Amino acid sequence: MAIKKIVDKWKLKKWYTVLAPPMFDNKEICEVVAAEDQLLTNRIVRISLMELMSTSSQTSMFTFLRFRISGVAGNTAQTTLIGHEVSPSYIKTFARRGKTILHMIVDIKTKDDVGVRIKVVGVATGKISETTKRNLRNTIVEEIKKAGPTFKYDELMQEILYGRLVSKIFNHLKQITSMKRFEIRKTEKQEQFT
């Protein structure tokens, strides 16, 4: 009886270079392996902001970007940015005894009609009243909803990742009460699959 020939499936696979979107100058993110081009589409790749932008700030070290592979041409895969997340362990360092922590979720639409869910966390320096909490929440929602329609999706993500939107909101919050920290901890692009 003839011995069945065993085909090594690993040898059939190819390596693909994954590139960041144009807003990050099409830098190489990583390399992934797949047997066929179609199997790469919609795969999610995660990378830290520090690795991508070559900056060494404390926040960028704990910020991770999520990219979805949108298309494959030859041995390169193009991606789109679908969100970011600040590490939960970094967020937990804000919590201290005697502080007030605010968590909020705000849904907005950008100028190019892309839905984005923004999750924020704010830390006040002491215990604050419910009225002050309500004022802080209203200010956060107002500022984020005001920023949404003024930017396209890529521009909004750059504002968030470079900290410009955070510092603008933080300055408004400081006028209400003494604030220790404000961060946009997570963004999610609301995608439609067909």
Question: Helical percent range?
Answer: 25-40%
From the coordinates shown, what is the CATH architecture of the largest domain?
2-Layer Sandwich
The separation of the N and C termini measures: 50 Å
Number of DSSP strand runs = 8
Question: What is the residue-averaged pLDDT?
Answer: 90
Query: What amount of the residues lies in strands?
Result: 35-45%
Alpha plus pi helix count: 7
Characterization of the model:
With 194 residues, the chain is α+β, with helices and mostly antiparallel strands. The chain folds into two domains: 13-85, no CATH class; 94-190, Tetrahydropterin Synthase, Chain A. It has helices at residues 9-12, 49-53, 58-61, 88-92, 130-147, 153-161, 164-174, and strands at residues 14-19, 28-34, 44-48, 63-73, 76-86, 100-109, 115-124, 179-190. Strands 1, 2, 3, 4, 5, 6, 7 and 8 form an eight-stranded mixed sheet that branches. The chain is elongated, with a radius of gyration of 21 Å.
